[in-house]
Amino acid sequence: MLIHEATQAQDLATLPSQDGRARPSFNILMIAPTSFFADYGCHVRILEEAQALQRLGQRLTIVTYYQGRDIDDLTIWRTRPVPWRANYEVGSSRHKVAFDVLLSWTALKAALRLRPDIIHAHLHEGALIGAVLSRLIGAPLVFDFQGSMTAEMLDHGFLRRDGPFYRPLRWLERHIDHLPHAILTSSHHAAGHLVQEFGCSPARLYPIPDCVNTEFFCPPAPDQAEALRALRAQLGLPANAPLVVYLGLLADYQGTPDLLRAAAVLRSTGVQAHFLIMGFPNIEFYQNMASGLGLDGYVTFTGKVPYELAPRYLALGDVAVAPKRSLTEGSGKLLNYMAMALPIVAYDTPVSREYLGDLGVYAPVGDYRALAERIAALLYDRRRATWLGWRLRERAVAHYSWDVAGHTILDIYTRLTRARQPANMWSG
């Protein structure tokens, strides 16, 4: 299958440019149909990707929803708020239709004023908006694919496979996938999914996995020990119990119920550990579930942890867990765990295998008892856990650098702007 390998693109990225001249500077319009920045999931990829491009001297403007947190040194254009919805929901929502209408108008104004060289769109709504703008102003469209649109709607319970809207939305997703000049995928598995399920041309696919800033996410230095003890006390965590950490969204498709059931299994078998569950939304719902499973005093929920504080909180952990059930979305939290030198227990999905390789500890998807067993094994064998954690950090440093990925993206931009082939948004 002729999908552009990230390693091949990275080899090209070590050169100033393909013809030896200085690498061009691009004016990039990035479309983010979400409440950027919100400390989770796709927001982290958007943020770190944008920062990597700016470090390489690129001019970049992000258009996004009204809600969200501003980030220093990033130029962000926001939509006007909708009068009936003050707080945006995470994930699929019927209100997103109105948000995307407003986003389309804001993106149009930005495109006409800024005249970008490249339109870089995240998520399917962004790709659809970007396709219209690409046709209007002639700038190539790059689609940053982070998972199947319809699969995400199914995961969120927003869509039923046997419902009346599934087939039309599946058709729309296929149509959108054929609009861009190039598609960046967060895994090779996602690239294969686009070819096999949606008939995309492999020549337009560029697997660029999520990456991580390994200088920001790194194991704590010895002189941080006192600060970590203070944080542990602040959170009310037991002083000596090993900590199992999770950082991410709290949702069924993320495996949150399985994580709690695994904790209940460990507690019932006398395993001395404490679970530190960091993230949002639905905190009260999962706290009640934890209480119903007899986990009071065994699990601590922190709520949302700001991205800037994530390394400090993860540094408390002894074992990290990633029970995500989705088979199409990326899993950037794995890279944060890896960079922190944490051993990782994950559900055995293609994306987990791609990131962790033979260094991950895997349980069958949905088997919370196996998840508990794998966690317990690492808690008992501290030498193996430490060895796995440091090998995973080495893997993150060697293979998942945003600086290298930034050069790769610039090579793709260069190819597209040289080709200057207008998108045919009505075909495919």
Structural class of the secondary elements?
alpha/beta
Helix content: 40-55%
Distance between the termini: 20 Å
Mean pLDDT: 89
Biggest sheet strand order reads: 3-2-1-4-5-6-7
Overall strand count: 13
From the spread of the alpha carbons, the general shape counts as globular
Poorly predicted regions are 5-21, 421-428
- Rg value: 22 Å
User: Strand content of the residues, in percent?
Assistant: 5-15%
Element-by-element helix/strand order: HEHEEHEHEHHEHEHEHEHEHEHEHEHHH
In words, what does this structure look like?
The structure is a single chain. With 428 residues, this protein is of the alpha/beta class. 44% of the residues lie in helices and 14% in strands. It is built from 16 helices and 13 strands. It has helices at residues 6-13, 41-55, 96-114, 123-137, 149-155, 166-177, 188-198, 225-234, 256-268, 283-292, 310-314, 333-339, 350-356, 368-380, 382-399, 402-419; strands at 27-32, 59-64, 75-78, 118-122, 141-145, 182-185, 205-207, 243-247, 274-278, 299-303, 319-322, 344-347, 361-363. It has a seven-stranded parallel β-sheet, sandwiched between helices. The chain has a six-stranded parallel β-sheet with strand order 10-9-8-11-12-13, with helices on both faces. Helix 9 links the parallel strand 8 (243-247) and strand 9 (274-278). The two termini are 20 Å apart. The model is unreliable at 5-21 and 421-428 (pLDDT under 50).
